[in-house]
Write a structure and sequence with these properties.
Layout: H1 6-13, H2 16-30, E1 46-47, E2 50-52, E3 61-66, E4 72-79, E5 83-90, E6 95-99, E7 106-107, E8 112-116, E9 120-124, E10 128-134, E11 142-145, E12 151-154, E13 164-165, E14 173-175, E15 179-181, E16 185-187, E17 193-198, E18 201-207, E19 213-219, E20 228-234, E21 238-243, E22 249-253, E23 265-269, E24 275-280, E25 285-290, E26 306-309, E27 314-317, E28 341-347, E29 349-350, E30 358-361, H3 365-374, E31 380-384, E32 389-393, E33 400-402, E34 407-414, H4 421-430, E35 433-434, H5 441-471, H6 475-482
Parallel strand pairs: 26-33, 28-35
Antiparallel strand pairs: 1-11, 2-8, 3-4, 4-5, 5-6, 5-7, 8-9, 9-10, 11-12, 12-13, 14-23, 15-20, 16-17, 17-18, 18-19, 20-21, 21-22, 23-24, 24-25, 26-27, 28-34, 29-33, 30-32, 31-32, 31-34
The structure holds 2-acetamido-2-deoxy-beta-D-glucopyranose (NAG) (5 copies).
GO molecular function: protein serine/threonine kinase activity
Domain Apple: 334-415
EC number: 2.7.11.1
């Protein structure tokens, strides 16, 4: 099964809206953006009383406002054949670096209006009379687009501090110079994945609504020393992190770091949940950083109950569904209606991010399984035979990775239909399905995997070593070193 098989799986999970959003967004990104015939991009300021309606039927992007350098523009971006969103676009690459997150996408038509009266408001009467998106700002007099791509609402009495700015409400992209704080997050258009600053680290999360989430990647710049206050992507090619005493800085270097070229960098959370950094080389976006280097380390890569074979990654199912692997919903096994489950066991499976998981030291596999079986918020567990550690999954089962035979997996599968809690225990044991290895080739793969893993661990160690050296250099010195 090819890796892009997961697309069908991911698509089904979201609500209709986020599904539509996801597809449209993807199309929009792929669409080439032309300036509409006769469109002027000389407007560098929008004043109170402004109102606009999408006009040019054939254009992919309708400019409303340009930055002083002509590199970025704000306007209506076509999404799919009939919809639109508000976006700030990097013109040379047609890439949206910011887009609004409306309750519904507006139609590209006369029913849609963008107005500015201090508050920037998008409405579409053909959808409903209310507001689809609004900056929720008051006291603004005009709207400008900065040469950094920051869209700002300013008041005439104080032109230096913005009443509202797009930099405080990022979508999936962080551009160079944009302040990334614990108040903001980068999210994929389907809201499935997010990059957030939490306490002492930044991390990638897969979200299931409520308190269920998977933290599958983490970078802890300050160790336990102090909370990160903000992070900024810097022109020298790194993600800089700053704590309360902003003179103290640590950095996550990109491949472009220390190469002497100053150009536009951006960090984007991809639709598959990976985090990439890019450098604009005046012709194309060069990939200069990837957070999750093993594709099987992405929790959604093969969808729910998916099994990812590393190396040249390919997807299989641990539990088959009607179309692909079995789908899971969110939630847990704690309510009466939904407390029934069967069990699937599989050996030789693990995840790349088990150090980030909830874990317990146990005596045996049986003890590990028992912990999960008895806890209604637990969906599954991985037992490590070599370390006697039990890793717990308190979220619907996602993709696991095939690996040697050091780990044993235990996974709950929701039963269709009723069944009381008295029946639950019996069902759980009776229906327990023990899966022997379906893929004989895994043993072979295991060997390869161990070798590959050791190799990549070595690489990681080397990287970690070099970034530690950098930690000790204060940011100020680093700067002078490189200029
Ligand atoms: C504006 O307020 C509404 C309702 O409180 C909220 O849903 C929306 O996300 C806000 N918009 C922005 C850009 O913060
Ligand atoms: C961007 O604008 C700032 C002032 O707002 C200016 O100092 C800077 O030189 C400009 N950068 C470019 C690349 O034009
Ligand atoms: C970034 O945001 C933090 C928290 O709001 C603030 O303390 C810091 O001064 C900001 N830094 C810059 C460079 O804007
Ligand atoms: C799932 O289906 C595939 C192909 O339809 C089959 O090869 C595989 O054995 C099935 N897996 C399980 C666990 O039933
Ligand atoms: C059940 O598991 C959750 C996390 O998965 C944990 O927070 C909770 O304490 C556990 N409950 C019991 C009774 O062990």
């Amino acid at each position: 099964m090819p890796i892009n098989y997961k697309m069908t799986i991911t698509e089904k999970k979201g609500s209709q809206l986020s599904y539509a959003f996801f597809v449209f967004y993807t199309l929009a990104i792929q669409a080439f953006i032309h300036p509409a015939a006769g469109t002027s991009i000389e407007t560098t300021e929008i004043r109170k009383g402004f109102s606009a309606t999408p006009g040019h039927v054939n254009s992919e992007f309708q400019y409303l406002l340009a930055d002083p350098t002509g590199l970025f523009a704000f306007g209506f971006m076509r999404v799919g054949p009939t919809k639109l969103n508000l976006a700030v676009v990097h013109l040379p690459s047609s890439l949206p670096v910011w887009s609004a997150i409306p309750s519904n996408l507006a139609n590209w038509g006369l029913s849609t209006t963008l107005s500015f009266d201090g508050n920037l408001v998008l409405t579409d009467k053909s959808i409903h009379d209310g507001v689809l998106w609004s900056s929720n700002s008051t006291g603004g007099d005009f709207l400008v687009l900065r040469n950094t791509s920051n869209l700002q609402i300013l008041s005439s009495s104080d032109e230096n501090s913005a009443v509202w700015q797009s930099f405080d409400h990022p979508s999936d992209t962080l551009v160079q110079g944009q302040n990334f704080t614990s108040m903001t997050s980068l999210t994929t258009p389907d809201s499935r994945y997010a990059l957030r600053i939490i306490g002492t680290h930044i991390g990638l999360y897969m979200e299931f609504g409520g308190r269920h989430e998977i933290n599958y990647w983490r970078h802890s710049p300050f160790g336990a020393k102090g909370a990160i206050i903000y992070g900024i992507v810097q022109p020298l090619g790194f993600f800089g992190f700053y704590n309360a005493d902003s003179s103290k800085a640590e950095l996550l270097p990109f491949d472009s770091f220390d190469r002497g070229y100053l150009g536009l960098h951006r960090v984007t959370i991809q639709n598959d949940g990976n985090l990439h950094a890019y450098f604009w080389d005046n012709n194309k976006w060069d990939l200069v950083y990837t957070a999750v280097t093993e594709p099987c380390g992405l929790p959604g890569i093969c969808g729910a109950y998916g099994l990812c074979l590393p190396g040249k990654p390919s997807c299989f199912c641990m539990v088959n569904g009607t179309d692909g692997c079995l789908q899971t919903d969110s939630g847990d096994f704690c309510s009466k209606e939904y407390n029934d489950f069967s069990v699937v066991r599989r050996s030789g499976v693990t995840v790349e991010y088990n150090e980030l998981m909830l874990s317990a030291r146990v005596q045996s596999l049986a003890e590990c399984e028992k912990i999960c079986e008895r806890n209604c918020t637990c969906w599954g567990a991985l037992f490590s035979k070599t370390t006697n550690v039990c890793y717990l999954m308190d979220y619907p089962i996602q993709t696991v990775e095939a690996s040697g035979d050091t780990h044993q997996g235990y996974f709950k599968v929701r039963q269709q239909g009723g069944g009381g809690s008295a029946e639950r225990h019996r069902t759980a044991t009776a229906v327990s399905v023990i899966f022997t290895l379906v893929f004989a080739g895994f043993a072979l793969y295991g060997g390869y995997w161990c070798w590959d893993k050791r190799r990549s661990n070595l690489l990681r160690l080397q990287l970690a070593g070099s970034s530690q050296e950098m930690t000790q250099t204060p940011f100020k010195d680093l700067r002078s070193m490189n200029t």
